[in-house]
Structures are given as structure tokens and as C-alpha cells.
UniProtKB/TrEMBL annotation:
It comes from Maribacter aquivivus. The keyword Transferase does not apply. SUPFAM superfamilies: TolA/TonB C-terminal domain. This is Protein TonB. Keywords: Cell inner membrane, Cell membrane, Membrane, Protein transport, Transmembrane, Transmembrane helix, Transport. PROSITE patterns: TONB_CTD (PS52015). PANTHER family: PROTEIN TONB (PTHR33446:SF2), PROTEIN TONB-RELATED (PTHR33446). NCBIfam families: tonB_Cterm (TIGR01352). The keyword Membrane applies.
Length: 234
């Protein structure tokens, strides 16, 4: 006859629960081991309580540096130039002027004062009587005739510089020249895109003929005239 087991004493009945509890414990230990952090302990030292040993006496070595003085500049011997008596020596004669009782006193009225007339310069747009270009003496509108003759003169003497053609240089040169009070051509000023074109513009204007000078209040004056010269390649 086999003895019967007591169901309350059966250990296999709670084996599943014990397995789960053991698994949780193992997982908790593994997690704690992985997340464990350790820090070094920080120790504070009180510096105020440190006392130096007065018996220790340190001497700081002293270094002496010798500076070499700069060399003295050489003393050049004084050169003495000997001049012979035969050499001619030019001397400046100084005439002393002394005033005495016989000196004649000159009156200021004895001197003639020459007043130089101030040179008047007038621009083309404000001149009363414009300069007359040769060939416009009998024209009624001398301003229009002057402009027309200027254009003819430029076309007649115009030459396109070869260097400007080779370098493909073109543009407008603004020129200003002065018609003096004797009818001659004075200072020529120019401003253009290149020196080659400026020189050609000056050459053209320098060939202008002598004109009848312009007048302001009946007196011949200098008159400035501005004209642009255009250089354009075909």
C-alpha cells in the first residue's frame, strides 16, 4: 500500500513563484551592478595652518650683466685748404650809403606811378562782342558763323591716330582753349579717355588761325571757348 502525499507539503506547487522571485532578484542585482557609480572623496586642506620653516633662508642669485659701450666715432683730421696768393679771389664790394646834410631828399610826387590794368577774362556765353573767326567779318550772326567755322576747321584737320585705331580707342575729348586779347590761341585744356586722343585734339586746336579778339565794354579781353571733339571708329 503506497502512502499518499499531502498536497500542502508539495514543493512543486510553488516552484513557479519561487522562479519568478529569483529571476527578479538576479535582474535587480545586475541592474545595480551596471548603474553603480563611485566618486573620489574630496579632501579640503586648510592652508592657513601651514607654517613655513623660518630656518630656511634662500638667497636669490644676482646676475651682473656687463654692457659694452658703443665705439667712439673716429675723429677725422681737420683739412686745411691752403690758398696761394697768386690765385684770384673775387670779393664783393659793399658800398656804404650814409645820409648827411648834403644828401638830397626826393619828394614822393617826383615818382610816376604806373597802374597796370587788371587782365579781364570772359567766358563765351557772357561776352558782349564775340571773337570773329576769319571769314565771318561780314556775317550778321557772328556766334553762329564762329561755331560753323570751328566745325569746318575740325573736319579739315581731323586725323584719327593710328595707335588709337590699332588699340580700338574711341571716345569724346572735352577741350577748352583761350582766345587772347590779341586774337591768338592761348592755353588749351583737354580731358579724354586716352592720351593719344587728347594729343590729337590739341594738335587740331593749335592750328586755329588768328582771330579778331572779343570785346567787353569796348576793350579787347580774353575769351574762353569750350568744344568737344568726338573720336569714333567706323
Amino acid at each position: 500500500m503506497r502512502p499518499k502525499k499531502n498536497p500542502q507539503k508539495d514543493l512543486n506547487k510553488k516552484s513557479g513563484m519561487f522562479f519568478v522571485i529569483g529571476l527578479l532578484l538576479v535582474l535587480g542585482m545586475v541592474y545595480t551592478a551596471l548603474e553603480w557609480k563611485s566618486f573620489e572623496s574630496f579632501k579640503e586642506y586648510e592652508v592657513a595652518f601651514n607654517k613655513t620653516d623660518e630656518s630656511i633662508d634662500e638667497e636669490i642669485p644676482v646676475f651682473e650683466l656687463e654692457v659694452t659701450p658703443p665705439p667712439k666715432p673716429p675723429v677725422l683730421p681737420t683739412e686745411i685748404e691752403i690758398i696761394e696768393d697768386d690765385d684770384p679771389i673775387e670779393e664783393t664790394e659793399v658800398i656804404a650809403i650814409e645820409v648827411n646834410t648834403e644828401t638830397e631828399v626826393v619828394d614822393a610826387s617826383d615818382f610816376e606811378v604806373i597802374e597796370e590794368e587788371e587782365e579781364v577774362k570772359v567766358i563765351w556765353s557772357t561776352i558782349e562782342e564775340v571773337p570773329v573767326f576769319p571769314g565771318c567779318e561780314n556775317e550778321k550772326d557772328k556766334r553762329a558763323c564762329f561755331n560753323e567755322m570751328m566745325q569746318k576747321h575740325i573736319r579739315k584737320n581731323f586725323r584719327y591716330p593710328k595707335l588709337a585705331q590699332e588699340m580700338n580707342i574711341e571716345g569724346r575729348v572735352n577741350t577748352t582753349f583761350m582766345i587772347n586779347n590779341d586774337g591768338t590761341i592761348g592755353t588749351i585744356r583737354k580731358r579724354g579717355p586716352h592720351d593719344v586722343l587728347e594729343k590729337e585734339a590739341v594738335r587740331i586746336l593749335s592750328k586755329l588761325p588768328k582771330m579778331t579778339p572779343g570785346k567787353q565794354r569796348g576793350s579787347a579781353v580774353k575769351v574762353s571757348f569750350a568744344i568737344p571733339i568726338t573720336f569714333k571708329l567706323q
